[in-house]
Design goal:
Blueprint (H helix, E strand, L loop, with lengths): L6 E2 L6 E2 L2 E4 L2 E4 H9 L5 H14 L6
Antiparallel strand pairs: 1-2, 3-4
Length: 62
């Protein structure tokens, strides 16, 4: 039986098991799919930009 780790998506802020890691952040598969298919004139584009700014926040790693 495979062990699936759940992580919080930086975009939708829900806990998911499948997605990608961008630097130290996790983006679920659904959000990744939505982001790459969203046009720049779509209102959701601004939301995605706002959420992705969290990736650039400085984090202290020990």
């Amino acid at each position: 039986m495979a062990n699936h780790y759940k992580e919080e998506c930086v975009v939708c802020e829900k806990t998911k098991t499948q997605g990608i890691h961008l630097y130290t952040s996790f983006i679920c598969s659904e959000c990744e799919r939505d982001m790459v298919s969203t046009e720049t004139n779509d209102p959701r584009y601004i939301y995605f930009l706002k959420q992705l700014r969290k990736v650039a926040e400085a984090r202290i790693l020990s």
